[in-house]
Structure formats: structure tokens, C-alpha cells
Amino acid sequence: MSDTAALKARRERLLGRNMSLFYSDPVHIVRGEGVWLYDADGRRYLDCYNNVPHVGHCHPRVVEAIARQASTLNTHTRYLHEGILDYVERLTATFDRRLDTAILTCTGSEANDIALRMAQAVTGKTGVIATDHTYHGNTTAVSQLSTRMPPVGGFSGHVRHVPAPDSYRPLGGTPGDAFSAAVAKAIADLQESPFGFSALIIDPFFANEGFPDLPEGFLDATVAAVRKAGGVVIADEVQPGFGRTGGHMWGHQKAGIVPDIVTLGKPMGNGHPIGGVVAGSDTLNAFRQAFRYFNTFGGNPVSCAAAMAVLDVIDDEALIDNAREVGAYAKAGLDRLRHKHDVIGDIRGSGLFFGAELVLDREKKTPATDLATRVVNGMRERGVLMGKLGIHQNATKIRPPMPFSRENADLMLSTLDDVLSGL
Amino acid sequence: MSDTAALKARRERLLGRNMSLFYSDPVHIVRGEGVWLYDADGRRYLDCYNNVPHVGHCHPRVVEAIARQASTLNTHTRYLHEGILDYVERLTATFDRRLDTAILTCTGSEANDIALRMAQAVTGKTGVIATDHTYHGNTTAVSQLSTRMPPVGGFSGHVRHVPAPDSYRPLGGTPGDAFSAAVAKAIADLQESPFGFSALIIDPFFANEGFPDLPEGFLDATVAAVRKAGGVVIADEVQPGFGRTGGHMWGHQKAGIVPDIVTLGKPMGNGHPIGGVVAGSDTLNAFRQAFRYFNTFGGNPVSCAAAMAVLDVIDDEALIDNAREVGAYAKAGLDRLRHKHDVIGDIRGSGLFFGAELVLDREKKTPATDLATRVVNGMRERGVLMGKLGIHQNATKIRPPMPFSRENADLMLSTLDDVLSGL
Helix axis angle, A406-421 relative to A369-381, nearest 10°? Predict the structure, then answer.
């Protein structure tokens, strides 16, 4: 049996069936460094997928911060410790001044689970609006926001879904109008239900929905409708946060809105399990009063040290500027490929989260979902790791570690050219 | 302003009000080593509270494992990696052979959130039974198991609470009969509800309930009633697991039962955020089929390296034997104090989770709840950190790191003698 087959069999025996695994020929990764991953045979892969190792795989400053703090103290927040205070002060300084306090958790799922309850504490209601192609995490409560699989006992009825924005197949009218109208309708519907209207939760970059290119002000009418109805806006920054989109630290800043609650996850500790919720002190205090909450590992000194090192590296290596510059460079390269390959229907994204939507017919914009799977596997065979996502699951998901360079982009582009040429 | 007052003010400003903090004079901890914690003034405290740093604060082997793996690779489980397989194989080998697969998470709360859904997947029902003084974690779904604070929108009605076992104030009859009768009644009640009966979730050591001393077989009739009704038994091992109670690796093994689902948390990674769910492959596969589940940080190579080092140290330093021996020694010491101090109404516990229940009147067993708070604060003033818990919040919570020695126990006992003498 091959190494891969043996590992897959062992994995199924120990971790169960139906556990997701990337690529038709899965990779057995043993080492990471910067934007590179290495398999057990020493083969090198350019990582165009992973946003969790935000400042690069195994960044020495993050590793050093973790090792130093882990050998000094790792305990909970029921004692006084300056690590969490220094970090939250530094973190909240990157937000609008109204967003001045935070709760730290271990995952983005835990953060969204809290955010929904924060909204409940502020509004006294439980109804939530989300988009129809989103994903906000894996807890029981947060899973209810997904349309993917009805849970045992059914959906609880407090969630309304609105069509995700789509810049490639827009609904017509002034951009943002259709979205805000759908949200307004969902608000009215919830207000007539026993749940009432509590919150709109969105990724302001709509990453899972296929990262549509939305004009400035797209969300203004939506946010106004939510506020007018007494609801709160939750911005899930697990994907666009920490400068990913280039030019802005947060996706909601790029979108030009100030949410009431912001949730953080994946890139926050470069892979060390840490997430968080940032909100105004009134919102946070309302939550703490309505729900007792304590998270044993949340905000521990080691997690805070890892997260602080991530902020240091983002600044010191000017990674937000890099995301903007290299992202623009790579997008321009994709655009050149579009002239050569008819299968590329649309190019969009921002900073180091961008990609191409693949279609079978440019005029009809017919989603090339299966072909996108072949492209992703073809890239993997040629040593470039990426994924796919979007409403039709036909957009390439290119979301590399933030130190991604022009040279890395060139390799990704030439490999993609090669794969598309071989289709 | 004193250092403590300044830190408290800064903490309230950045982390919000009502965030729990131990002791009337909180400690500002900056360093930990073995069973010792050190404050900013260099003062040393004997840690009789923290079970998270299971093999001792900053154990060099755990720190080294974390540092080594963090500098090599830290990624998710959608690639093949041997770290998680080696760990799950080693972990499940400590369980009954029917419990042969696992899902890894970041926290015990996430683990219990999954366990409830696993039970739903297996039974097709959602009703759950828990004890009336328990705590199983902080997610929205798991919080519903607590009676402490009604959530916004109210409790959902699918939880039934049964009186927690109490060996000091037993309900009468053959031990276990009253508990199994209460569970049987709750099962019947749920079966007549729209929810149906899905699971009984218990800490088999009933730690938060005050760690009653229960005879062998106490839970047998209860488990039989659950199985007969087609439900599953979830054992929450977040507190008694990993050898804490001495002589057994798991609390349910001490209780002599084989649960269907086991959840793990706090001590698993010595403070590194890792939790998990262990179950039979049929149960785990049913969950994976009914609910898509992926946890970005869960089972990452660094978490697995930390957790593997914990298992290594437990074995190599014979910490389960140590827990049994030192725990018995300390309990005998507490029993001597009982002859001197009338306030000690009962001594109980097992291994390195034991304590005294404090009463105002031995005959009436009147809980001395406020006095217990004074004792805990008096211990802190004298350099010994512990807590309190139990149905009446009047039992001392003594739950030190596992390398706790007889000498450490002597210091704890002499300090307690001193504090009780000064009341």
C-alpha cells in the first residue's frame, strides 16, 4: 500500500469516515516555511490557500513568542495578567473608537457563538439574518446560519437567509438596493415572528459567497435598515481581517461601515487557536450581564503572545501594503490569462484574496463547477495549492499567506496558464 | 494607584465589567513552574487549584514539543498528517475498545457541543438530561444545560435536570436508586415531549456538584435506564480525566461504566487549547453523516504534539500513581484537621481532586458558604491558591497540578489549619 493509501486508511479508522480531505490525490504535508509547504518526499508546494498561517508558515517571531511565553506562564484570565490587556489595547486601537473592548476565545466559531448572544442581550430578540451561501462556524448555534444541512430536529426558525451579493450576475438596479431590500423584507418577516429581529451577520467581504467586487456604499442602505429596526450588525472578519484585503486592516473598513460587533478567528494567532469578539463596552457589558461567560483557554498568555507577534509582523513587514501590491499584480496577471482562456469568466477580489470565476460559456456565464475541481487538482499536481468556493463553487480560492511575493504570483500564474491550457 | 487597582481598572476598560476574577485581593501572576505560581513581586504561591497545567506549569517537555512542532508545521486536518493519527491512536488505547475513534476540537465546550449533536444523530431525538448543579461549557447549546441564568428567549425546553448526587446529604434508599429514579422520570417526561430522549450527560465524578463519594455501581441502574430507553450516555471527562482521580485514567472507569461518548478538555494539552470527543466509530460516523463538521484549528499538529507530550509525562512521571498516593495522604491530613475544626463537616474526593465541605453545624450540616469564601481568601493571603464549589458552594476545591507532592500537601494542610484556627 502506498504511503497515501495507508495514511487514508488509518485516518478513516481513527477519525471516522466523511472527514474532508483536500485533492483527489491528498498531500502528506510534513513541514512549512513562509509561503511553502513540503510533503513527506521533500516536494515543495506553493501555498496559495492558507490564510491561517497569516504571516507565513512557522514565522520565527511567532514561534519564538509562543515558546517564550509557554515556558514562562500559561494560565486563565481569572488572575491578573498584562498579556491580554496589552493585546486587547493594541487590537482595539485598529478599530473605530466605538469598538473599544473585546472577549477572547479559542476559535472564530466560539466568537460568532458569542456575537449572536451579544446581539440578543442588546436587543432582547433572537432572529438573525445571514446570506444564503455563508459559513460562520461549527457550533450548534452558529451552524443554524448555514443552509447546507438541516440539523436533527430541524432548523429552529429564527434565521432568515437573503441572496448573497454577486457582482458577476447582479440582481439589477443600483448596486446594494436589491440586497438592502431583501434584508428589509427579512427584518419585517422576523418582526412578525415570535423571534423578533436581533442581528444581521455578514462577512463584509462575502468571501465564501465568492468575494464579489462591490462598490463603495454597497452596504450603507442595508446597515441603515438594520439600525432603524433596532438590530445590530455583526461583521465576521475571520476571512477578510488582519489586512488580508490590502489597504485596510478590516473588511468592514474596506466596505465603509462600522459594525456593532466584530468577530475574529483564523489568522489571529498564525495557527495558534485564538479568536475574539470586539464590540463597544455597552454591548459587551450587556452580554456579560445577560449571560455568564468564561472561556478557560480564551485570552491565555500564550495565545495573546502569539497574537501580539502576528500584529508586530504585519506592521514590521508591511504586509498590508504587500497584500495590496502583490494582489493587484496577481489580479492583473489573471486578467491577462482571461484574454487567453475563455473559461475565465470573471476576475475579482482584493489584496491577497482574489480569483477567477470559471464558466463554460462567457455569454451565459454557465458555472464550470466540475472544471474548477479539475483545475484545483491540476494545480496541486503541479505543486500549487489552492481551492475553490462561491455560490456556484466555480471560483478559484486564492488566499495565500501574507508574505506572498510577485515571484510567487508569477509561479501561480504560469502554473494556472499551464493547467488551463491542458484542459 | 496600586499595581492591582491599576490593572483592575485597565481590565474593566478593555475586557468589560463583570468578568470573573479570583480572590478579594486578586493575584497578578507572571510566572509558573511545576506546582508553583509567582506574582509580580516575586512572591510564590502553591497552586492547589489549577488542573489545566495538568503535568505542572510550563513543563519543559510540553513546552519543547510545542516549540518544536510550531517551528516545523502547523496546519489543518484537510491534508494528511501523522501527528493527529499517532495521538488519537495513543489516546483511544486508554479507553474501552468500543470507544475507538475521536474528533479533536480546541475546547471542552466545543467537545460537548459536538457530543450533544452526536447523540442527536444516533437517536434522532434532542432531549437531554443533566444534573441541576453542573457546568458543561460556554457555547449557546451547551449553556442550555446549566440552570444558572435563563438565556434571552428562555430555555428551549429540551433539557431536564435531575438532583445531583450528594454523599453527605444522601436522598436515602440504596445509593444510586434515587438518582436512577429521577433519571427514569426525566426520560419518561422527555419521551412525552416533542423533543424525545436523546442523552444523559454527566461528569462521572460530579466535580462541580461537589465530588460526592459514590459507591461502586452507583450509576449502573441509571446507565441501564438510559440504554433501555434508546438513549446514549455522555461522560464529560473535562475535570476527572487524564488520571486526575488516581488509579484510573478516566472518571467513568472509576465509576465502572462505559459511556457511548466521552468529552475531553482542560488538562489535555497542559493549557494549549485542545479538546476532543471520543466515541465508537458508528456513533462518530453517524454524526459526520448528519452534520458536516470541520474545525480549523482542531487536531492541528502543534495541539497534537502538546497533547502527546502530556500523555508521555503522565506515564514517565507515574502521575496517576502520584495522584492516588498524594491524594490519599492529603485526605488523611484533612481528616486529622476535621477532629480539630468543627467547621469541617465532610471530607471527600479522590486522587488529586478532594476537599472539605464546611458547615456551621455538624448535626444540621448547615452549609458555611460565606465562611468558605473567607477560607479561600485566607489561603490566598498565606500563599496557597484554591477555590470552592459544590451544590451549596461551601466545599473547598483542591485540584492541583498532578506532580503535587506530600511536601506540597503538608504546606497546604498546615496553612489550612492556620486559616481555620484564625476564623
Answer: 120
Each residue's pLDDT tens digit, B166-208:
999 998 889 999 999 999 999 999 999 999 999 999 999 999 9
> Residue written as cell 436522598?
B171
Q: Which residues contact B71 (CB under 8 A, 6 or more apart)?
A: A58, A60, A63
Note whether B74 contacts A32, CB cutoff 8 Å: yes
Q: Cβ of B15 under 8 Å from any chain A Cβ? A: yes
Q: What is the ipTM of this complex?
A: 0.97
Computed from CA positions of residues A15, A17, A23, A28, in that sequence, does the dihedral angle turn out positive or negative? positive
pLDDT in tens, B198-257: 999 999 999 999 999 999 999 999 999 999 999 999 999 999 999 999 999 999 999 999
Query: Which segments of chain B have a pLDDT < 50?
Result: none
Q: How many residues does chain B have?
A: 423
In B, which residues are within 8 Å of A92 by CB distance? 14
Nearest to A309 by CA among A111, A36, A107, A90: A90
Contacts of B92 in chain A (CB under 8 A): 14
B291 neighbourhood in chain A, CB within 8 Å:
143, 149, 151-152
Q: Which three cell numbers stand for residue B66?
A: 510545542
CA distance A203 to chain B (A): 17
Interatomic CA distance for residues A238 and A245, integer angstroms: 12
Mutate to test the interface with A, among B15, B29, B33, B69 (most CBs of A within 10 A): B15
In single-letter form, the type of residue at position A236 comes to D
C-alpha B239/C-alpha A296 separation (Å) is 12
A270-294 pLDDT tens trace: 999 999 999 999 999 999 999 989 9
What residues have CB less than 8 Å from A37, skipping those under 6 apart?
A27, A29, A31, A44, A45, A47, A57, A385, B73, B75, B79
Residue A50: per-residue pLDDT: 98
Pair A263, A117: CB distance under 8 Å: no
With beta carbons less than 8 A apart as the criterion, state whether B272 and B309 touch: no
Across the interface, of A14, A273, A295, the residue whose CB is closest to B88 is A14
Q: Do B297 and A273 touch (CB under 8 A)?
A: yes
pLDDT of residue A147: 79
- pLDDT confidence of residue B1: 63
Nearest one of B166, B172, B161, B230 to B202, comparing CA atoms:
B161
Residue A1: pLDDT band with limits 50, 70, 90: low
Q: Is the pTM of this model over 0.80?
A: yes
- What percent of chain A clears pLDDT 70, i.e. is strictly above it? 100
A290 touches chain B (CB under 8 A): yes
Domains of chain B: residue spans and CATH: 3-55+318-421 (3.90.1150.10), 61-316 (3.40.640.10)
A81 inside 8 A of chain B by CB: yes
Who's near A227: CB < 8 A, 6+ residues apart? A233
